[in-house]
Every structure is written in structure tokens, then in C-alpha cells.
Amino acid sequence: MPIPRRIARAKRDARAKTAKTFINKTVPAVLKSSARARRGVESVQLVIDPPQSKEEPPKKQAYGTRKALHSEQGPLPDHAEQQGSLEEEVEERHAPLTSKVLPPMSISIHACDTLEAASRMYFSSTSRSPPRVAVLNMASPLRPGGGVLTGATSQEESLCGRTTLYASLREDFYRLPDVGGLYTPDVLVLKSWDDGPMGGLLLAKSERFFIDVATCAMLRMPDVEGGKYADPRDEELVVRKMRAVMRMVRGRGVMKLVLGAWGCGAYGNPVGEIARAWARVLCVRGGRNGGCRREGEGEGWDGLEVVFAIKGCRMAVAFAREFGGGLTVHGIADDDEDEEDISSECDGEA
Q: What is the pTM for the complete model shown?
């Protein structure tokens, strides 16, 4: 039974009020007290059609843990906000890329929120210093934060209503480029993701964590016939967009990445086309246990751990089926697929 219009409007207004308070009061106070979060906002970069990296990944003769990070990934964290010593962080960030042999990229699909997936990746790490986790902000190409200030509830609004991201999305960066986007390092996650679209509680300081965010926009309302793009050029543009995201994060030393069913919502992209495009970019051809091997047009993303976070269970299952490679969806109860309305998930995947 649909929610009466006046109730829906009241809920939207309440979300907008909560978001405005968070963005206009909470975030500025946090940025004033956190040098690392402030530097992250100031370090945002506009990246247009990034080129393929000229650096070849090391050969996979044996598995190891890659601690080396690219030297241009931004300022070092504050002593009070980073586990491990500053000396260890400097050593790891500037170690040669070939000092460790990388395992194959791993890929998994989880029926969960983007920030929930990022939190799991961050806090489950066994390395001496926290990992660099990045997420894809499936963004509006026209408005910073999409509809966060008007109470909208898609993935971008959720990110901006819970982190310091919005402060980095300056008006002069828009319209976002067709291929590429904004890269914001050291975005601080401040609110939980398990209590309504924008109503999560503030996290305790010990529960807060930093992520990098790639803010990029997908095609809007492409022509579709039979669940596929009517124009082959749209398919190629989607692949270019995805490859740009991967190059943006790869060039900044990210080893843990949260992606999603990008554009499969209000923007009208078919889930099958998006899933197959991601598979094409990531070059998965039936690897075991979500493993990924380089083939064909692949650039090689060795060492990356990729999680597709897709909240709606039916959408996640459809995505996994079209992605291929024998992937299954984690975090689904037996009856979730029948109870979940795929349209509600679509609304959350811009």
C-alpha cells in the first residue's frame, strides 16, 4: 500500500532538515577539529579521462600483501587519527610498487549499504596500519550531493548525509565530466548507516574511519530496447566511465574498493548492461572464488579487493547473474529475494 502523499512529503522534509543540520553544523565543526579530514576536503581533484597507467603490475609468482601505496595519494594522517606509527605509514606509502608480489584481484557481491561494506573492509584488515578504502559515489552530474538538501534518498545522498564528502563537492567542478570525475581523499565517516536513509546516529570517535571517494556520474535515461542499450555507443561510453573509475583509484594506491549497480535506478540503465560492463572492465572470466585474471582488453587490477554493495536483494541477485564468473550474493536471507521490491533498490542506485 503506497504511503499517502502528505506523509511522504513530511518524511522527505524531515530528512532534508536532518541533512542540512549535519552538513551546515556538524561537518564544519568536525573539519575544524580534524586536520586530516580538512586536508582531504582541500585535496579534492577533478580528473578527466585518466590515461592507462604505464606501470606494469608485478608478476604473480607468489602471493603477498601489498603495503606499497602511490606517493601522490595525499597527506599523511594525524597521529591521533591513525593506528600504527607515522614512520610505518611513510615507509609503506613510499615503498616501491614491485617490493611485494600481488595476489589476483578478488570480487564479491554483498547485499548491504556502501558504507557498511567500506566499514567491514576497513576494520577487518590485519595490516599494521589501516587500509586505504575507496568507494564509488554514484553521483548526479549536475548538482553537488544530488538531492541531499531536499531529502532525496539515493546512494549519493546517503554518503553526503553521513560523511564529510559534501564539503569537497564545489559548485565550480560541475557539470561533472562524461568520463572521469572528482577524487576526494580522506573523507571521514561520521554517522552510522543502519538507522534510516539519513537518520543514522553519530559514530563514536573510535568507530569513525576514513575513506577515499570517487564521485562520478553514469548515463541518464539512455534509450533501451529489450533490456539492452539501443545505441552501441552508450555501451562503450559506460565502459569508458567504469575504466576511468578504476584508473582513478588505482593511481592513488587504493587496494580495497566498494562499487555498486551504477546507474540502475532513477537513471534508467539496465542492470544486465551495467553488470556485464563491470565484468568486461574487470576482466572476470570464470575465476574461482571470485578470482580475477587478466584477459583481452584488461589493464590488470592485481591486488585489489572489490566489493559490489547493492542493498536490494533482488537487484543484487540479478546483478550477480549477469556479471557471471560464478559469483553469489552474500548477506541474503532465504526469503529476502521474494520480499524485496526491486524498484526500491533501483531508487537507491543512481
A: 0.82
